[in-house]
Design goal:
- By secondary structure, this protein is α/β, with parallel strands linked by helices.
- The protein is 44% helix and 20% strand.
- Strands 2-1-3-4-5 form a 5-stranded parallel beta sheet, with helices on both faces.
- One of its GO terms (cellular component) is protein-DNA complex.
Length: 124
């Protein structure tokens, strides 16, 4: 599965990249702005998205566009999970920082299972 990392804090982005790769996924990024993420969206299956990016508090708007326009599954990884409120329709999960490897891997596994389930239903 191709996992897009959208995070403006380099050390966190590299940690997310390491976790995704060790779990057997390909990574896209890390990317730190909405413009970069939208450019790479067609090459991604799932995105790990922070709410606060280099271009401001734009993660929620980015998530909406990734879900609606590109069919990318979104998992928020944020230090402010309360700002997601009741969630964003279509987002798979909200993970609080600091996170554990297991929490990220678990969310990615659910996204992969969901994608496989969707693909098998679409093939019928």
């Amino acid at each position: 599965m191709k996992v897009m990392i959208v995070e403006d804090e380099n050390i966190i982005a590299l940690e997310l990249e390491r976790i995704a790769q060790e779990a057997g996924h390909q990574t896209v990024g890390p990317l730190s702005t909405v413009e970069q993420a939208l450019a790479y969206a067609p090459r991604s299956d799932v995105a790990l998205v922070d709410l606060s990016l280099s271009d401001g508090l734009s993660g929620a708007q980015l998530a909406r566009r990734l879900i609606d326009r590109f069919g990318v599954d979104v998992i928020f990884v944020t230090g402010s999970p309360e700002n997601v409120g009741n969630g964003i329709e279509g987002a798979l999960d909200v993970i609080s920082k600091p996170f554990t490897d297991e929490r990220i891997v678990s969310a990615l596994s659910r996204a992969e299972a969901r994608r496989k389930d969707f693909d098998s239903k679409a093939a019928v």
